[in-house]
Design brief:
alpha/beta; four-stranded parallel sheet; 38% helix; 22% strand; globular
Length: 443
């Protein structure tokens, strides 16, 4: 099928950062066939479908580099408690999380992301086989990594059992056009050296990125300083697991030497400004990372950590926090922030040859942000409008691999009300709400 989208303000996000204020895009099947200015649009070509963008901003689909989509049930639970993780999340996870709850949560989370213009994401949680099935069903582009941790979890019966789960999970999705399987040790401090090295080898064998929380927690920094006289990143170099396949989530606490090592080994960083600041952990040194040539993308973290799964909120928070932290209004121009949400995120996932920019031959993953709403006028700079004015509700249309999954701000093949009902039923069946309320009451 050949589709024409005309009268769009196109931000290509290519190396030259080309934009066509009055542009058109042609998609054939799964790929981008043409992009250019309206005055160069051939007049004698027939299309199977023609769509008038009506001056909407067209840009690549956004890439969420770090999240936990199975955790929708935990959203808004104990947000302001200092020991929220141990008081609420871990106990409820152990009591209630199961295959059905993870699956229905995954579908609901993907719906939220698609409606917000997120077309690809890197997930780290449990029951990743069910989450992969959810991603395939929702027609989303996804990297899904099974968590490995030194304790019994909801889907494995022995500590570090996530590694064996991943060994079974990875080959099932080899060669899939949209979904890739991966593996994710929770953190350096919650895994053994041997497990971390095995994960690195598994990632190399299947040629997929792997993910881990790194340099996020104060106690983590103290542990490696006191026990090894090193930072966590220096420790990871010593044991030989730093590489271009590692996506290090958070990286809030970095030394100059850490940044040098991240660049040396081409480690990618998933920056989650919303979750990092909500939990009062700090503001990562992103300007220094980018100046050193480290690849950084934006992530939301899980829906219990950052509460929303859209990157519009992350872009705004990124701008506000980093400008304030640096005391520099000119830091991070809007176009640089949009890059972090698109092409740089694609680089973090190792998908930059296929997605992340509007270029001929790439996969047709793109979104339209309407400019008719009250908050979208006037527009002098499209990048500024996306970062400072727009929100997820301005996303009108979403295409993934040439297939439209959102039209006129609604899912094409799914109903949000139905997805919510399915998730609510799964929560009810495992007693999630009643147990959550008991925990909130301190019982």
């Amino acid at each position: 099928m050949k589709i024409l989208i005309k009268n769009a303000w196109i931000l290509t996000m290519n190396d030259q950062m080309e934009q066509f204020e009055h542009g058109y895009l042609v998609v054939e099947d799964t790929k981008i066939l043409e992009v250019g200015a309206m005055d160069s649009l051939p007049q004698d070509v027939k299309y199977d479908k023609c769509m008038d963008a009506k001056r909407a901003i067209l840009l690549p689909g956004m890439v969420n580099t770090h999240t936990h989509i199975g955790m929708i049930p935990f959203r808004s639970l104990g947000d302001d408690y200092p020991d929220r993780l141990r008081r609420f999340l871990f106990p409820l996870e152990n009591e209630c999380m199961n295959e059905q709850l993870a699956y229905t949560s995954g579908k609901y989370a993907i719906a939220e992301m698609q409606l917000a213009g997120v077309t690809a994401f890197f997930d780290m949680y449990y029951f990743e086989q069910q989450l992969a099935e959810a991603a395939e069903e929702m027609h989303s582009r996804a990297l899904l990594a099974e968590t490995v941790i030194d304790s019994v979890t909801v889907d494995v019966a022995e500590p570090m059992g996530g590694l064996q789960y991943a060994e079974r999970f990875l080959p099932k999705w080899q060669g899939h056009s949209m979904v890739q399987a991966s593996v994710a040790p929770h953190a350096p401090y919650s895994n053994t050296i041997e497990v971390l090295q095995q994960v690195d080898k598994l990632s190399l064998k299947y040629k997929v990125p792997w993910m881990m929380h790194v340099s996020e927690m104060d106690f983590e920094m103290a542990k490696y300083r006191d026990q090894h006289n090193q930072t966590p990143i220096e420790f990871l170099e010593k044991i030989g697991v730093l590489s271009s396949r590692l996506v290090a989530a958070h990286c809030i606490h970095l030394s100059d030497h850490d940044i040098e090592l991240l660049k040396k080994y081409d480690v990618k960083v998933a920056h989650c400004i919303g979750a990092n600041t909500k939990s009062a952990k700090g503001v990562a040194r992103v300007r220094d990372l980018l100046a050193a040539g480290v690849t950084v993308g934006l992530g939301t973290d899980g829906p219990s950590s950052g509460n929303t799964l859209d990157l519009f909120s992350q872009m705004r928070l990124f701008a506000n926090f980093h400008k304030t932290y640096l005391q520099d209004r000119s830091a991070f121009p809007a176009e640089e922030i949009v890059k972090l949400a698109t092409i740089e995120g694609a680089k973090v996932l190792g998908m930059q040859e296929h997605i992340g920019s509007i270029e001929v031959g790439k996969q047709a993953d793109f979104i339209l942000v309407e400019t008719d709403s009250v908050n979208m006028f006037p527009i002098f700079d499209a990048y500024s409008a996306l970062v400072y004015s727009a929100n997820a509700s301005n996303v009108s249309d979403v295409f993934i691999a040439g297939k439209q999954v959102v039209t006129n701000k609604e899912l094409v093949n799914f109903n949000v009300t139905q997805l919510r009902a399915e998730l609510a039923e799964a929560m009810e069946q495992c007693g999630f709400k009643s147990k959550a309320l008991e925990a909130m009451e301190g019982k």
